[in-house]
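Hi V.,

You were right to ask for the full record rather than a summary. Here it is.
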Amino acid sequence: MFNFFKKNKENDTEETIIQNPETVETPETEQEPAESADIMPESAEAPAEANGGFFAKLKAGLGKTRDALNEKVDSVLKVFKKIDEDLYEELEEALIMADVGVETSTYIIDELRKKVKEKHLTESEEVKGEIAEIVAEILSENDNTLKLETTPAVIMVIGVNGVGKTTSIGKMAAKYISEGKKVLLGAADTFRAAAIDQLQIWADRVGADIVKHEEGSDPASVVFDTIAAAKSRKSDVMIIDTAGRLHNKKNLMDELAKISRIIERELPGCSRETLLVLDATTGQNAVNQAEVFSESASITGIILTKLDGSAKGGIVLAIAHEHSIPVKLVGVGEGMDDLQEFNALDFANAMIGE
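Predicted structure:
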């Protein structure tokens, strides 16, 4: 295991504020409670190999989703031995009940009809494998890879309070540091109580540098200073923690637009990801969040957390199909290496397989 908790002494200094040439009044925003769940227990750093690798963890993490989905699908297949319209209707209802969503469930059944006709299938037991294939196709429709070609590459992370945003940033930083990259964190979620302190804790744990200002300061100024520090320190990856306040969408849009302008001006042509963190346990509410945030920001991908505690992993399909937003990272546990890049085929096999 990499020594993620070794502190970087050379750069353990708080950034001073650099004059930002773009001055826009910071919108007043209601303070939110501290996201205490984002502080990972010290004991949660067992290597993935101890549990049979990440696919084993993914399969175990999707156990509740798989059991819920398989139970519903299998109960239908036991009743209907032949493929007919009644079978399709019951399967569609089973998928909807498994949090796949109405639109996506309808699409899956329509595609299933086509495959049954093309392959001349007649027995209901042949259907399950076809559903798994359609699921994999849906999850592969969008590009699930992270684009981090330039130096520095920029990752902006958005998410409402309690979804695991700070934890996801810390785990991403640990992953890239373990690959030999130099990581710089930007604490631009300046309005939520304790957000800056939580990010500092993660920076200390994983050995990442951090740029931070005082609570309540302009997030865009933090981003400006983070970019300046990334250039001077030759950082490989810059991860920016930004706010996500759905109760004040206009302020959020203004803030994200201002941050985007600064990145485009200061780092033209850089590789850039804007990742939305969603909690899998919230089911269709997570799908709604994806829709609302997509109206406020150019979301390039989803980080789906807490899959290990949810029977609602089917929302991945709804997000990918209905909103064309790729899932790029999935979290299946509390361990440092339990946040991994998304693999559509592995996910489909883990979700639909026995």
